Amino acid sequence: MPLMKMTARKSNGGTAPRMALPLPTVQASIAPSQDMDICDGSSHNDYCIICRDGSVDAGSLAVLAQDVTFRCIVCHRELSNQNPAGAPYYGFYKNGRPLLNTFLPVTATLELSMRAQISSEPVLFVHLSLVGIDTTGGPFELGHQFLQPYFPRGGLGYVNIEFDLATAQTASKYRREVEKVVRELLKERRWSRLVMAITNHTDNDCGDPFTGRFNDQYVAAEVNTFLDLLLAPWMTMIQRAKESYMWFFSCGALVNNTVSFAALQQSVLKHRITASIAFTAVRFQPNFTAHLLLAFAEQVLIESYHISHAFPHMLGQSNKLGRHTNVVLMMTDTLAGNLNAIRYFWTHIDYRPWGYHMPVQCPDCGIMDAWLAATKRRVYSFECKNRHCRKLYTFEQPVGSQLLMPGKTGSSSWMSINCTSES
Fold this sequence. Notes:
Elements: H1 49-52, E1 68-70, H2 73-80, E2 92-94, E3 97-98, E4 123-130, H3 139-147, E5 156-163, H4 168-188, E6 193-199, E7 210-214, E8 217-220, H5 223-231, H6 235-240, E9 243-249, H7 253-256, H8 258-270, E10 275-279, H9 290-302, H10 307-316, H11 319-324, E11 327-333, E12 338-348, E13 371-376, E14 379-384, E15 392-395, E16 402-403, E17 412-418
Parallel strand pairs: 4-5, 4-6, 6-9, 9-10
Antiparallel strand pairs: 1-2, 2-3, 7-8, 10-11, 11-12, 12-17, 13-14, 14-15, 16-17
Protein backbone atom coordinates (compact mmCIF):
# COMPACT_ATOMS: atom_id res chain seq x y z
CA MET A 1 0.00 0.00 0.00
CA PRO A 2 1.53 3.41 -0.93
CA LEU A 3 2.39 5.83 1.87
CA MET A 4 -0.14 8.60 2.35
CA LYS A 5 0.74 12.05 3.67
CA MET A 6 -1.98 13.10 6.10
CA THR A 7 -1.92 16.90 6.08
CA ALA A 8 -4.62 19.53 6.04
CA ARG A 9 -5.62 21.16 2.80
CA LYS A 10 -3.38 24.11 1.93
CA SER A 11 -4.67 27.64 1.43
CA ASN A 12 -3.43 30.49 -0.73
CA GLY A 13 -5.65 33.18 0.77
CA GLY A 14 -8.29 35.13 -1.16
CA THR A 15 -11.78 35.64 0.27
CA ALA A 16 -13.69 33.85 2.98
CA PRO A 17 -17.23 34.31 4.30
CA ARG A 18 -17.49 36.00 7.69
CA MET A 19 -19.03 33.97 10.48
CA ALA A 20 -19.50 34.43 14.22
CA LEU A 21 -16.91 32.61 16.29
CA PRO A 22 -18.00 30.32 19.14
CA LEU A 23 -16.74 32.48 21.99
CA PRO A 24 -16.63 30.72 25.37
CA THR A 25 -19.29 31.61 27.92
CA VAL A 26 -16.68 33.02 30.31
CA GLN A 27 -13.85 34.72 28.48
CA ALA A 28 -10.36 35.16 29.86
CA SER A 29 -9.93 38.46 31.65
CA ILE A 30 -7.82 41.06 29.94
CA ALA A 31 -7.28 43.02 33.15
CA PRO A 32 -3.83 42.88 34.79
CA SER A 33 -3.19 39.74 36.77
CA GLN A 34 -3.82 39.98 40.52
CA ASP A 35 -1.32 37.22 41.26
CA MET A 36 1.64 38.22 43.40
CA ASP A 37 4.74 38.71 41.29
CA ILE A 38 7.59 36.47 42.38
CA CYS A 39 10.98 37.96 41.62
CA ASP A 40 13.37 35.61 39.91
CA GLY A 41 16.69 35.23 41.69
CA SER A 42 19.42 37.40 40.27
CA SER A 43 21.44 35.48 37.72
CA HIS A 44 24.94 36.16 36.54
CA ASN A 45 25.13 37.68 33.09
CA ASP A 46 27.82 35.96 31.02
CA TYR A 47 27.86 38.84 28.56
CA CYS A 48 28.83 41.72 30.86
CA ILE A 49 32.28 42.82 29.67
CA ILE A 50 33.21 43.92 33.20
CA CYS A 51 32.81 40.36 34.50
CA ARG A 52 33.95 38.60 31.37
CA ASP A 53 37.25 40.42 31.01
CA GLY A 54 38.25 40.51 34.66
CA SER A 55 38.10 44.17 35.56
CA VAL A 56 37.33 43.22 39.17
CA ASP A 57 39.38 40.72 41.17
CA ALA A 58 37.33 37.52 41.42
CA GLY A 59 38.22 37.25 45.10
CA SER A 60 36.93 40.70 46.01
CA LEU A 61 33.75 40.59 48.10
CA ALA A 62 33.38 44.33 48.62
CA VAL A 63 31.48 44.82 45.41
CA LEU A 64 28.90 42.19 46.45
CA ALA A 65 27.73 44.06 49.55
CA GLN A 66 24.03 44.87 49.70
CA ASP A 67 24.58 48.64 49.89
CA VAL A 68 26.81 48.74 46.81
CA THR A 69 25.29 49.79 43.52
CA PHE A 70 26.66 49.15 40.03
CA ARG A 71 26.53 51.70 37.23
CA CYS A 72 26.88 50.25 33.75
CA ILE A 73 29.06 51.86 31.10
CA VAL A 74 26.09 53.15 29.08
CA CYS A 75 24.56 54.92 32.11
CA HIS A 76 27.95 56.35 33.01
CA ARG A 77 28.37 57.75 29.52
CA GLU A 78 24.92 59.36 29.67
CA LEU A 79 25.80 61.06 32.97
CA SER A 80 29.26 62.03 31.74
CA ASN A 81 27.76 63.90 28.79
CA GLN A 82 26.83 66.61 31.26
CA ASN A 83 30.53 67.15 31.99
CA PRO A 84 32.51 68.42 28.96
CA ALA A 85 35.76 67.14 30.48
CA GLY A 86 34.36 63.64 31.03
CA ALA A 87 34.58 61.56 34.20
CA PRO A 88 36.50 58.41 35.20
CA TYR A 89 34.49 55.20 35.29
CA TYR A 90 34.43 53.61 38.76
CA GLY A 91 31.56 51.17 38.18
CA PHE A 92 30.71 50.46 41.83
CA TYR A 93 29.34 53.07 44.22
CA LYS A 94 28.43 53.25 47.90
CA ASN A 95 26.34 56.09 49.26
CA GLY A 96 26.86 57.90 45.97
CA ARG A 97 30.67 57.73 46.20
CA PRO A 98 33.07 55.48 44.26
CA LEU A 99 33.76 52.24 46.13
CA LEU A 100 37.16 51.56 44.54
CA ASN A 101 40.27 53.63 45.09
CA THR A 102 40.96 53.94 41.40
CA PHE A 103 38.93 53.89 38.21
CA LEU A 104 37.65 50.54 36.93
CA PRO A 105 39.76 49.40 33.94
CA VAL A 106 37.71 48.27 30.93
CA THR A 107 39.95 46.03 28.86
CA ALA A 108 37.37 44.79 26.37
CA THR A 109 36.24 46.23 23.05
CA LEU A 110 32.68 46.21 21.75
CA GLU A 111 33.14 43.53 19.10
CA LEU A 112 29.70 41.92 18.76
CA SER A 113 27.42 44.58 20.19
CA MET A 114 27.29 48.31 20.71
CA ARG A 115 26.30 47.68 24.31
CA ALA A 116 28.63 46.92 27.20
CA GLN A 117 26.09 44.48 28.58
CA ILE A 118 23.57 42.51 26.52
CA SER A 119 20.41 40.96 27.80
CA SER A 120 20.10 37.31 28.74
CA GLU A 121 16.55 37.52 30.09
CA PRO A 122 14.37 34.57 29.02
CA VAL A 123 12.67 34.86 25.64
CA LEU A 124 9.73 32.75 24.47
CA PHE A 125 8.76 32.53 20.79
CA VAL A 126 5.14 31.52 20.15
CA HIS A 127 4.06 30.84 16.56
CA LEU A 128 0.33 30.51 15.91
CA SER A 129 -0.49 29.43 12.35
CA LEU A 130 -3.79 28.84 10.55
CA VAL A 131 -4.62 25.21 9.86
CA GLY A 132 -3.37 24.28 6.40
CA ILE A 133 -0.59 26.89 6.10
CA ASP A 134 2.90 25.53 5.53
CA THR A 135 5.33 27.55 7.68
CA THR A 136 8.39 25.33 7.20
CA GLY A 137 11.63 27.30 7.24
CA GLY A 138 9.95 30.63 7.86
CA PRO A 139 11.65 33.78 9.21
CA PHE A 140 10.12 33.47 12.68
CA GLU A 141 11.82 30.12 13.29
CA LEU A 142 15.01 31.60 11.85
CA GLY A 143 14.90 34.39 14.44
CA HIS A 144 14.68 31.80 17.20
CA GLN A 145 17.60 29.82 15.79
CA PHE A 146 19.68 33.00 15.55
CA LEU A 147 19.33 33.57 19.31
CA GLN A 148 20.27 30.06 20.43
CA PRO A 149 24.03 30.76 20.94
CA TYR A 150 23.12 33.57 23.37
CA PHE A 151 21.35 31.14 25.72
CA PRO A 152 23.80 28.28 26.45
CA ARG A 153 22.13 27.60 29.82
CA GLY A 154 18.54 27.73 28.62
CA GLY A 155 16.03 30.53 28.78
CA LEU A 156 15.05 30.46 25.11
CA GLY A 157 11.82 28.69 24.17
CA TYR A 158 9.86 28.00 20.99
CA VAL A 159 6.24 26.88 20.68
CA ASN A 160 4.46 26.19 17.40
CA ILE A 161 0.67 25.71 17.50
CA GLU A 162 -1.80 25.35 14.63
CA PHE A 163 -5.22 26.89 15.22
CA ASP A 164 -8.72 26.27 13.87
CA LEU A 165 -11.35 28.40 15.61
CA ALA A 166 -14.21 27.99 13.13
CA THR A 167 -16.36 25.66 15.26
CA ALA A 168 -17.01 25.21 18.97
CA GLN A 169 -15.29 21.81 18.89
CA THR A 170 -12.10 22.97 17.16
CA ALA A 171 -11.92 26.16 19.26
CA SER A 172 -12.26 24.12 22.45
CA LYS A 173 -9.52 21.76 21.27
CA TYR A 174 -7.20 24.72 20.59
CA ARG A 175 -7.94 26.24 24.01
CA ARG A 176 -7.22 22.97 25.85
CA GLU A 177 -3.96 22.49 23.94
CA VAL A 178 -2.76 26.00 24.73
CA GLU A 179 -3.75 25.80 28.40
CA LYS A 180 -1.69 22.63 28.76
CA VAL A 181 1.32 24.26 27.06
CA VAL A 182 1.02 27.39 29.22
CA ARG A 183 0.97 25.35 32.43
CA GLU A 184 4.19 23.60 31.42
CA LEU A 185 5.85 26.88 30.42
CA LEU A 186 4.97 28.54 33.72
CA LYS A 187 6.46 25.62 35.62
CA GLU A 188 9.70 25.99 33.69
CA ARG A 189 10.48 29.67 34.44
CA ARG A 190 9.17 33.18 34.23
CA TRP A 191 9.40 34.34 30.62
CA SER A 192 10.39 38.01 30.73
CA ARG A 193 9.91 38.60 27.01
CA LEU A 194 7.24 37.09 24.82
CA VAL A 195 7.49 37.21 21.02
CA MET A 196 4.39 35.99 19.20
CA ALA A 197 3.64 35.58 15.51
CA ILE A 198 0.33 34.91 13.77
CA THR A 199 0.66 33.40 10.30
CA ASN A 200 -2.70 33.72 8.62
CA HIS A 201 -4.66 34.83 5.58
CA THR A 202 -7.05 37.77 5.42
CA ASP A 203 -10.14 38.45 3.35
CA ASN A 204 -9.07 40.63 0.42
CA ASP A 205 -12.12 42.88 0.66
CA CYS A 206 -12.74 43.58 4.35
CA GLY A 207 -9.47 42.49 6.01
CA ASP A 208 -11.10 39.84 8.22
CA PRO A 209 -8.54 37.24 9.37
CA PHE A 210 -9.24 33.60 8.52
CA THR A 211 -10.27 31.53 11.53
CA GLY A 212 -10.32 27.95 10.23
CA ARG A 213 -12.42 25.57 8.17
CA PHE A 214 -16.19 25.14 8.24
CA ASN A 215 -18.01 22.81 5.85
CA ASP A 216 -14.75 22.22 3.96
CA GLN A 217 -14.07 25.91 3.28
CA TYR A 218 -12.18 28.67 5.06
CA VAL A 219 -14.19 31.20 7.04
CA ALA A 220 -13.20 34.54 8.56
CA ALA A 221 -14.23 36.72 11.50
CA GLU A 222 -13.89 40.31 12.64
CA VAL A 223 -10.46 41.24 13.94
CA ASN A 224 -11.50 41.89 17.55
CA THR A 225 -13.42 38.63 17.88
CA PHE A 226 -10.65 36.61 16.27
CA LEU A 227 -7.89 37.99 18.52
CA ASP A 228 -10.04 37.70 21.65
CA LEU A 229 -10.50 33.98 21.08
CA LEU A 230 -6.97 33.31 19.81
CA LEU A 231 -5.16 35.14 22.62
CA ALA A 232 -7.46 34.35 25.56
CA PRO A 233 -5.51 31.26 26.76
CA TRP A 234 -2.23 33.19 26.39
CA MET A 235 -3.21 36.16 28.56
CA THR A 236 -1.41 34.87 31.67
CA MET A 237 1.85 34.74 29.69
CA ILE A 238 1.25 38.20 28.18
CA GLN A 239 0.42 39.80 31.52
CA ARG A 240 3.47 38.36 33.28
CA ALA A 241 5.94 39.28 30.55
CA LYS A 242 7.86 42.55 30.87
CA GLU A 243 7.71 42.96 27.10
CA SER A 244 5.43 41.36 24.52
CA TYR A 245 5.69 41.61 20.75
CA MET A 246 3.31 40.48 18.02
CA TRP A 247 4.17 39.86 14.36
CA PHE A 248 1.24 39.64 11.94
CA PHE A 249 2.37 37.54 8.98
CA SER A 250 -0.72 38.05 6.84
CA CYS A 251 -1.70 39.87 3.68
CA GLY A 252 -2.09 43.62 3.69
CA ALA A 253 -5.89 43.86 3.77
CA LEU A 254 -5.63 43.62 7.57
CA VAL A 255 -4.10 47.11 7.73
CA ASN A 256 -5.08 48.49 4.32
CA ASN A 257 -8.79 48.32 5.18
CA THR A 258 -9.64 51.29 7.39
CA VAL A 259 -12.22 49.43 9.51
CA SER A 260 -10.11 46.33 10.15
CA PHE A 261 -7.00 48.43 10.88
CA ALA A 262 -8.88 50.49 13.47
CA ALA A 263 -10.17 47.27 15.07
CA LEU A 264 -6.65 45.82 15.04
CA GLN A 265 -5.26 48.83 16.91
CA GLN A 266 -8.04 48.63 19.50
CA SER A 267 -7.38 44.92 20.04
CA VAL A 268 -3.60 45.35 20.36
CA LEU A 269 -4.17 48.02 23.01
CA LYS A 270 -6.80 45.91 24.78
CA HIS A 271 -4.47 42.91 25.04
CA ARG A 272 -1.58 45.11 26.24
CA ILE A 273 0.89 44.03 23.58
CA THR A 274 4.03 46.17 23.90
CA ALA A 275 4.53 46.47 20.14
CA SER A 276 3.04 44.86 17.04
CA ILE A 277 4.25 44.72 13.44
CA ALA A 278 2.07 44.27 10.34
CA PHE A 279 2.61 44.53 6.58
CA THR A 280 0.70 46.13 3.70
CA ALA A 281 1.58 43.92 0.70
CA VAL A 282 -1.56 42.53 -0.94
CA ARG A 283 0.17 39.20 -1.64
CA PHE A 284 2.52 39.25 1.34
CA GLN A 285 5.54 36.93 1.37
CA PRO A 286 6.76 36.35 4.97
CA ASN A 287 10.24 35.17 3.93
CA PHE A 288 11.07 38.71 2.77
CA THR A 289 11.01 39.80 6.43
CA ALA A 290 13.98 37.62 7.44
CA HIS A 291 16.47 40.50 7.71
CA LEU A 292 13.98 42.62 9.66
CA LEU A 293 13.31 39.83 12.14
CA LEU A 294 17.00 39.06 12.64
CA ALA A 295 17.70 42.75 13.27
CA PHE A 296 14.81 42.76 15.78
CA ALA A 297 16.29 39.75 17.57
CA GLU A 298 19.69 41.39 17.80
CA GLN A 299 18.81 44.99 18.59
CA VAL A 300 15.65 44.62 20.68
CA LEU A 301 15.96 41.22 22.36
CA ILE A 302 19.74 41.08 22.85
CA GLU A 303 20.94 44.68 22.93
CA SER A 304 17.74 45.83 24.69
CA TYR A 305 17.11 48.92 22.59
CA HIS A 306 13.54 50.19 22.76
CA ILE A 307 11.76 49.15 19.59
CA SER A 308 10.86 52.75 18.73
CA HIS A 309 14.58 53.58 18.65
CA ALA A 310 15.65 50.33 16.98
CA PHE A 311 13.03 50.15 14.23
CA PRO A 312 14.59 52.63 11.76
CA HIS A 313 17.91 50.79 12.14
CA MET A 314 16.14 47.45 11.64
CA LEU A 315 14.63 48.77 8.41
CA GLY A 316 18.04 50.08 7.36
CA GLN A 317 19.13 46.44 7.07
CA SER A 318 16.01 45.54 5.05
CA ASN A 319 15.95 47.75 1.97
CA LYS A 320 14.75 44.93 -0.30
CA LEU A 321 11.74 44.47 1.97
CA GLY A 322 10.67 48.00 1.05
CA ARG A 323 10.25 46.98 -2.59
CA HIS A 324 7.70 44.39 -1.47
CA THR A 325 5.73 46.03 1.33
CA ASN A 326 5.27 48.93 3.71
CA VAL A 327 5.60 48.13 7.41
CA VAL A 328 3.27 49.24 10.20
CA LEU A 329 4.55 49.48 13.79
CA MET A 330 1.99 49.78 16.61
CA MET A 331 3.28 50.65 20.09
CA THR A 332 1.14 50.78 23.21
CA ASP A 333 1.45 53.00 26.25
CA THR A 334 -0.50 51.05 28.85
CA LEU A 335 -0.13 53.75 31.51
CA ALA A 336 -1.61 56.44 29.28
CA GLY A 337 -4.00 53.95 27.67
CA ASN A 338 -3.21 54.88 24.10
CA LEU A 339 -1.52 53.47 21.01
CA ASN A 340 0.77 55.02 18.42
CA ALA A 341 0.91 53.59 14.89
CA ILE A 342 3.62 54.48 12.38
CA ARG A 343 3.76 53.40 8.74
CA TYR A 344 7.23 52.97 7.27
CA PHE A 345 7.61 53.03 3.49
CA TRP A 346 10.50 52.88 1.07
CA THR A 347 11.26 55.59 -1.44
CA HIS A 348 13.49 55.54 -4.54
CA ILE A 349 13.92 58.48 -6.89
CA ASP A 350 13.31 56.32 -10.01
CA TYR A 351 11.11 53.41 -8.97
CA ARG A 352 9.22 54.63 -5.89
CA PRO A 353 9.19 58.47 -5.81
CA TRP A 354 8.13 59.56 -2.31
CA GLY A 355 6.87 56.03 -1.75
CA TYR A 356 4.44 56.01 -4.68
CA HIS A 357 4.53 53.17 -7.21
CA MET A 358 5.67 54.12 -10.70
CA PRO A 359 4.00 52.06 -13.44
CA VAL A 360 6.46 50.01 -15.48
CA GLN A 361 4.45 50.78 -18.60
CA CYS A 362 2.85 53.97 -19.86
CA PRO A 363 -0.89 53.35 -19.44
CA ASP A 364 -1.78 55.58 -22.41
CA CYS A 365 0.57 54.45 -25.21
CA GLY A 366 1.76 51.09 -23.85
CA ILE A 367 5.52 51.52 -24.27
CA MET A 368 7.91 50.11 -21.67
CA ASP A 369 10.74 51.99 -19.94
CA ALA A 370 8.78 55.07 -20.84
CA TRP A 371 9.70 57.74 -18.34
CA LEU A 372 11.87 60.84 -18.50
CA ALA A 373 12.47 62.08 -14.94
CA ALA A 374 12.94 65.60 -13.60
CA THR A 375 13.10 67.06 -10.09
CA LYS A 376 12.26 70.59 -8.96
CA ARG A 377 11.84 71.75 -5.37
CA ARG A 378 11.51 68.19 -4.11
CA VAL A 379 8.74 67.43 -6.61
CA TYR A 380 9.42 64.48 -8.93
CA SER A 381 8.03 64.62 -12.47
CA PHE A 382 7.91 61.71 -14.91
CA GLU A 383 6.89 62.26 -18.53
CA CYS A 384 6.40 59.62 -21.19
CA LYS A 385 9.19 59.83 -23.76
CA ASN A 386 6.77 59.07 -26.61
CA ARG A 387 6.35 62.49 -28.20
CA HIS A 388 2.83 61.57 -29.34
CA CYS A 389 1.79 60.71 -25.78
CA ARG A 390 3.52 62.80 -23.11
CA LYS A 391 1.68 61.20 -20.20
CA LEU A 392 2.77 63.03 -17.03
CA TYR A 393 3.04 62.02 -13.35
CA THR A 394 4.09 64.30 -10.49
CA PHE A 395 4.84 63.24 -6.92
CA GLU A 396 5.21 65.37 -3.80
CA GLN A 397 6.41 64.32 -0.36
CA PRO A 398 3.45 63.15 1.77
CA VAL A 399 2.50 65.72 4.38
CA GLY A 400 3.87 64.79 7.80
CA SER A 401 6.34 62.20 6.49
CA GLN A 402 9.97 62.06 7.57
CA LEU A 403 13.08 60.77 5.85
CA LEU A 404 15.04 58.20 7.89
CA MET A 405 18.82 58.22 7.85
CA PRO A 406 19.57 54.53 8.70
CA GLY A 407 20.09 52.63 5.44
CA LYS A 408 19.86 55.79 3.33
CA THR A 409 21.67 55.73 -0.02
CA GLY A 410 22.09 58.31 -2.72
CA SER A 411 18.85 57.27 -4.40
CA SER A 412 16.72 55.53 -1.77
CA SER A 413 15.63 55.69 1.83
CA TRP A 414 12.98 54.58 4.28
CA MET A 415 10.38 57.13 5.37
CA SER A 416 7.86 57.24 8.20
CA ILE A 417 4.43 58.78 8.75
CA ASN A 418 1.95 58.55 11.61
CA CYS A 419 -1.10 56.41 10.81
CA THR A 420 -2.84 56.07 14.17
CA SER A 421 -6.60 55.64 13.76
CA GLU A 422 -8.81 58.12 15.54
CA SER A 423 -10.83 56.62 18.39
